[in-house]
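PROTOCOL LOG
Step 1. Enter all chains and additional molecules of the complex.
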Amino acid sequence: MAKVTYEKEITALLVIDPYNDFISEGGKIWDRIRAVAEANDCVSHMLQVLNAAREAKLRTFYALHHRYRPGDYESWKYIAPIQKAAWMRKTFEYGTWGGEIRPEFAPKPGEIVATEHWCSSGFANTDLDLQLKKHGVHQLIVIGLIAHTCIESTVRFAAELGYEVTVVKDATADYSDEEMHAALDVNLPNYASAIVSTDEIVAALAAA
Amino acid sequence: MAKVTYEKEITALLVIDPYNDFISEGGKIWDRIRAVAEANDCVSHMLQVLNAAREAKLRTFYALHHRYRPGDYESWKYIAPIQKAAWMRKTFEYGTWGGEIRPEFAPKPGEIVATEHWCSSGFANTDLDLQLKKHGVHQLIVIGLIAHTCIESTVRFAAELGYEVTVVKDATADYSDEEMHAALDVNLPNYASAIVSTDEIVAALAAA
Amino acid sequence: MAKVTYEKEITALLVIDPYNDFISEGGKIWDRIRAVAEANDCVSHMLQVLNAAREAKLRTFYALHHRYRPGDYESWKYIAPIQKAAWMRKTFEYGTWGGEIRPEFAPKPGEIVATEHWCSSGFANTDLDLQLKKHGVHQLIVIGLIAHTCIESTVRFAAELGYEVTVVKDATADYSDEEMHAALDVNLPNYASAIVSTDEIVAALAAA
Amino acid sequence: MAKVTYEKEITALLVIDPYNDFISEGGKIWDRIRAVAEANDCVSHMLQVLNAAREAKLRTFYALHHRYRPGDYESWKYIAPIQKAAWMRKTFEYGTWGGEIRPEFAPKPGEIVATEHWCSSGFANTDLDLQLKKHGVHQLIVIGLIAHTCIESTVRFAAELGYEVTVVKDATADYSDEEMHAALDVNLPNYASAIVSTDEIVAALAAA
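Step 2. Run joint prediction.
Step 3. Record the structure below.
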């Protein structure tokens, strides 16, 4: 895989779904993610990358899944299985702790929170592409959850829309090693120009 | 997985990349696909589904990858790895036999060929979504190549854009069983409402 | 202009920007709109159409402009003049009365409020297209403000995306007759299949 | 209107629909455009801007309307009036002289021709946004036809998608002064950051 260099002016960090339901003890999905997330130290790596990006004065963007609200899906004629699951589980329920961003990942002033997405891609039916363009961004460093759904869909969309993407492989997690493998080893190498470790991206940002 | 029923008026077949380079003896990629494609009888299943759809008077759409032309990529500042590979290989070269649709899959009058896509999703940067809406389509039956790239990206996009999708699992193929597994078993069950065999879809269409 | 008939199952009402700032006494923009809006009885016509649509059991959707929040535009490298004006005026300021929907137009349960748009089109960078597809909608009846900006851009986008549009000409308003004329007489006849009066649409919906 | 400065690296010329049918003696639409186009010397201004952009080493992009082909619209359930007119007139018929680019405007190697658009916006259902991003473009200089349809829709879309736009007011034309006025004076000032003359843009490009 080619080594990617980052021009600070056109590079941004994209943090995907750092909700309590995903990455906090007690979150609705945490127990299903815990094994993989603890094995690769996902949460503290996410935080390391976020801090390194802020330190390097990169712009940070957040792509957040739709928070569940009553009535969201009842009238839909067509629904994807992953949306039906979100409906059943009331994942990221609006107004609850699970639907809040884990405190260490709270956006700071000047950081951009895109409108919420309804399925897995942070780009689909949101203002993420607009906000990236308004800030002149062409290169994305992606961290967050879940590897084979939101991360992979967001990276596939990013590549289709013309962005150059780096994925930080130990700052993401999944339900199982098999799903991590499908995302990180089978699919993402087609769409991400680099798949790196936290150590590697932190070093690259310090040098940029 | 829920059983899907098809309303003919709003259902279409979507055929993805039935190029000689992919599915004909002598095509540039055929040798890499052959093992999986022959094991599941991919090409004749694709043809069976196409015939069944035509028989049932479903509208058929084609999503085709960009045919390589000189100068396509030289001036791009950003390029995804899968696009770089297409560039190097000159896959589906315009004006050559490899960039032609395998004859049995040639579109008939009244069938819709979407504009070519640049990466893996038949929806990205094309008129496929428009053409589906102009024909009142909400349900898609998807066949073609390659499972973990174009099929999966097109299905992910279809779900994000609001379509209900069925994938025909033995009317697609891939470079290896591992990649087939990542697409058909790990990822697509989140985005496709049904993943069925050729026999199943042919029976469902005959009954519709 | 061809007479349009409405299939209830696939037709929706789209209400654009019924904010206090636009259509309530005391709103930031109301004084600039008042002359045209009072001359054609815009607000009570909007209400008549909304009631007729609800009566006829059409699904109703709301396309709402971004509510101003501090920090929205400071970091943008590129900004359109109409966005700069919204920034300067703090139009539809979040958390203020001006940024609330005029009470008679409050969405009811089951009605869909799309994510906020940043410029003039209710479709751009929002989930409006998705929500329409999820509900099987292909025909739109459009009312609201302002004729030559948000109405016209939303209708142009609707046509580009494949929808069939009806505009209710006395359920919209503008700063001047010249701008109404540019929208209703010069431009919209290219993109809207019908431009009708409130009386005409109310009768058509009663008969549908 | 604020003075716009152009960074060459991120600025492109966008040429819209320089078809014989529009701007050549004998073209299907030319007789309806001729009065306005001759009054403001549209065609030679378009050529001046194109030459100045090439001289300044700006990248040039072409946004072209769909060329009519038999069968295009017969199966559409929904069609906008402007599309119906294109169908009836067979405007820009594929394989005919009218559907060719006027020779002086032929794209040169390295210039990018976007996929054809179906209605008025060069961005809708095409790869124009992708191609602009792949080349790092954020600022657009727009010339071509017709002011109140394709130019205005393309500029409205460009603004919605995050681009900064300059329109060259004497390098466009229309059926009548009223339609030119609606586009150039009423609507485009909301979406284009600058509306300039050919002399002004040629001077600005020479200085850039």
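Step 4. Note key features.
Chain C touches chain D at residues 1, 77-83, 118-121, 124-125, 138-139, 148-149, 152-153, 156-157, 159-165, 178-179, 181-182, 186-187, 189-193 (CB under 8 Å).
The helical segments of chain C are 20-23, 30-39, 42-55, 81-89, 128-134, 147-161, 177-187, 198-207.
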